[in-house]
Amino acid sequence: MDEPEPAGDAAPPPGLRSVLPPREFLCSRKGQLLLAESVLSFIIFICYTASLAASFMMAPLLEFLLALFLFFAYAFKLNEKFKGLYWPLTDFLRCVTAAIIYFAISIAAVSKYSDGASKAGGVFGFVATIVYAIDFYITFNDLVAFLKQGSSDSSDERKSEDENSDSDSD
After folding, report:
1. How far from each other are the two terminal CA atoms of the chain, in whole angstroms?
2. Which candidate among 4, 54, 136, 140 keeps its CA 20 to 30 Å from the CA of 159?
């Protein structure tokens, strides 16, 4: 008869391990930012749903779903498997639009509505604006570095093609 393993050293069951993101991604800067964006968006969605500013609840819901999708896409390396979508640019545009939208609806929720849930949604919206702004700043720097690296490779290819051409243009 096999002896049971001690409960303290037990790993999660294989089914659960396939759903959870890897620990390396959760400890990375991008993983923490996407997790913070998801949690903040969900909190803001709940606040606006329970407030008089219920008309603002669609933006946090969409941002929550997008952040959650990108969280799992990056965690399970779908960005490496699906090359047809330019992931850094998509993530950059998502962060820029989310920061602008959260800033706008937070100002409207804090100034126009007087209930506590609207004010709380507005305050969390300002915090989310900062988190999204940090994410788009970091993503923008990565995007610029990638584009500089890509443009230097393409200029080297053009230079070698020009040197190897046998045209008699003189």
Report:
1. 89
2. 140
